[in-house]
Amino acid sequence: MTAGRRRFPQRLNTRNGRVDMTHGSGGRAMAQLIEELFVSHLDNALLRQANDQAAFDVPAGRMVMSTDGHVISPLFFPGGDIGALAVHGTINDVAMSGARPLYLSAGFILEEGFPLADLERLVVSMARAASEAGVPVVTGDTKVVEKGKGDGVFITTTGIGVVPAGVEISGDRARPGDAILVNGTLGDHGVAIMSSRENLQFETRMQSDSAALHTLVADMVEAVPTIHCLRDPTRGGLATTLNELTQQSQVGMKLRERAIPIDPAVTAACELLGLDPLYVANEGKLVCICDAQEAAPLLQVMRDHPLGAKAAIIGEVIEDELGFVQMETRFGGSRVVDWLAGEQLPRIC
Amino acid sequence: MKYVEEFRRQDLAKRLSAAIHDAVEPHRQYNLMEFCGGHTHAIFRYGVQDLMPPSVTFVHGPGCPVCVLPIGRIDNAIQLARDEGVILCSYGDMLRVPASGRNSLLKVKAQGADVRMVYSTQDALRIARDNPQREVVFFAIGFETTTPPTAVAIKQARAERLNNFSVFCNHVLTPAAIQNILESPELRDMGSVSIDGFFGPSHVSSIIGSQPYEFFAEEFQKPVVIAGFEPLDVMQSALMLIRQLNQGRHEVENEYTRVVSREGNRKAQSLVAEVMELRRSFEWRGLGLVPYSALQIKAPYADLDAEKRFQLPLIQASDVKGCECPRILRGVKKPTDCKLFGSVCTPENPMGSCMVSSEGACAAYWSYGRFRQPETPRESAA
Q1: Does the residue B317 lie in any domain?
Q2: How many helices (H) and strands (E) does chain A have?
Q3: Which of A267, A332, A336 comes nearest B371 by C-beta?
Q4: Is the CB of B120 inside 8 Å of chain A's CB atoms?
Q5: How high is the pLDDT of residue A194?
Q6: Which of A94, B60, B74, B203 has the CA that lies 20 to 30 A from A122?
Q7: What's the pLDDT at B189?
Q8: Could you tell me if B91 lies within 8 Å of chain A, comparing CB atoms?
């Protein structure tokens, strides 16, 4: 905001101030919150136009659009916070079509009484994530709910992107014989979140893997445009994502437990809590299914990218009328890897 | 990882598997009951059955703490939770166990009851300290392993004069239940079920020691091997049981020597003895009334006993029609023998308690073993 034309006599008190109902009323207080907190940090040409919508030209081709509500508790966690997560989560959902993400929108639901200092921290983090990813937040919305009717902050982000010509990625395209790949260790995010939950604090070196995967996807799609499926195994973990894909594609899967990368600290935490890392959430991981012949070169491309250094081929797609995900256990036996039943833990993304 | 992966090594598993294949006598069937859900879970999660000869069958026992609690006690807990002044705390799995009228703690929570999932009794104490104007009841369940922490909480509440805290005590005892299974008519008279030996509990035995099993190993002439919860523990213990059976021995052996001693944890035992005493009888799901099989809070701590404080009535409730949990818990039937299994009863929508906890036989069958062909029924003399 230019110093010459200050619209508000006093700056927003982002040190001790709190969100109150006027910040959502549509009046001057809301305008100030938007201007001094949201626009100033998320700053970009489209947002600065201050319209109720962002207008932009789009390249020709197939567009994708995705939306994601973020309600994570706690709001700040090792390796991230809800602000960065809201950017990464939606970029990833767009990118899992093979698309190049272009723009984001963000809707904030704030709870009365929420410290403005925390809100600023989140927005700064969000701005950093968007700028690092090169995907700006170009329009947004703010609402305030009464104390007790929210949980600090909920953020919904929507993203759009454009799919390169010739790329056709969809969850129903897995075929028997295809290879199944992941880009790294599983369960990092969930364990980092659990370690910082109020009633479950334990010490771990694990950090959330929250990251925008679109540049990795761009490299992958460039190398192998015929990739069949991509999906980010967030809630419900790898197991749930693979079960979704088997159902969509009407196939089965056979995994090798030995090949699935899991950090020893995640194994240890899951051991302690009685959880299975295959069901624990991720925010910077993807599952890729491609023709078996493409698997080795694709794996190399993934490993050459910083977000794919620990990529691995973890199994193959098989024919199975019943659509089961089976696994050869590390121990030498076999078992089914079923859908997550119930919930492992509340509100992790 | 230290002390975890070591007990899951495939090369050792293969060697044990070969030893077991060598040890089994031809034309002989070995029906081995693992009492604990922890063993059931390990067997399925790691695919231990795949490494065993076809003549070795695992019979899944009743050792799943949420599975054996009778419906009436859960109805009691629901009654407590519905009291507006009460915060009811319990361990996670308990929340989903079906009670009468297709109710559950999770459902009454959704209707507004204040039910909190805790990870330890210390969490429950903290909730009581933070909410002095509310009654905080800890819904205590479990075998001998979870009993000492409950005893600690009771003593702590007394010392802190935490007057709004109480315990709904449902702690049960393992040896009494094993004895009850061995004395059951199906085993003694009808001879329809044969259990040749037992995997003894691992965590429970760390508290009570291996000694309490000596009586019935002798009395019923069944070998018992105290087994750890890791898959290699289960295989090593199976081999020990098979060798005992081949040699006609029926002793208590301890495979889990890294944790379990003959005497157990004396300090934990005396702590429990200080605040709790035997109940004359307690109802178990699947086993019915079992004499001296559970604990209650002693008279000097009666003010911390939720049963007395809230004058909880004795509720007799029956299982869902068609639910085979009672027989599955005794090892008389397999989950796949139940008509409800996998049709109306799944982990998402459990009708019986065995489908709730990951330690329950039905949940383990469903989640880990579903793709297997239906197994051939166990040989029976009936």
Answers
A1: no
A2: 10, 13
A3: A336
A4: no
A5: 87
A6: A94
A7: 57
A8: no
| Same structural domain, B166 and B268 | yes
Q: A159 and A186: one domain?
A: no
Together in a domain, B227 and B79: no
In chain B, the N- to C-terminal Cα span, in Å, equals 48
Asked if B90 and B145 sit in the same domain, the reply is yes
Q: Does residue B46 sit at the A interface (CB-CB below 8 Å)?
A: yes
Q: Does B13 contact chain A (CB < 8 Å)?
A: yes
Q: Average pLDDT for residues B313-333, to the nearest whole number? A: 86
B355 and B212 both lie in a single domain? no
Dist. CA B350–CA B337, nearest whole Å: 16
Interval B75-119: pLDDT, tens:
999 999 999 999 999 988 888 888 998 899 999 999 999 999 898
What pLDDT does B191 receive?
Answer: 54
Q: Are the C-beta atoms of residues A33 and A17 closer than 8 Å to each other?
A: no
Which two tokens mark B339? 């008509």
Phi, psi for residue B68 in degrees, rounded to 5: -90, -5
User: The CATH number of the domain where B274 resides is what?
Assistant: 3.40.50.11740
Would A217 be classed as within a structural domain? yes
Task: Based on the fold, state whether residues B167 and B85 are members of the same structural domain.
Answer: yes
Chain A / chain B CB contacts < 8 angstroms = 71
Q: Which of residues 249-288 of A touch B (CB under 8 A)?
A: 264, 267-268, 271, 274, 276
Range of the domain at A55: 21-163
> Coil, strand, or helix at residue B298?
coil
Per-residue confidence band for B371, with pLDDT thresholds at 50, 70 and 90: low
Same domain flag for B156 and B31: no
Give the count of beta carbons closer than 10 Å to the beta carbon of residue B249. 13
Task: Provide the H-helix boundaries in chain B.
Answer: 10-23, 37-45, 71-82, 105-110, 121-130, 147-160, 174-183, 185-188, 203-208, 214-219, 231-246, 266-275, 306-309, 325-329, 361-369
What count of residues does chain A have? 349
Token digits of residue B115: 């039910």
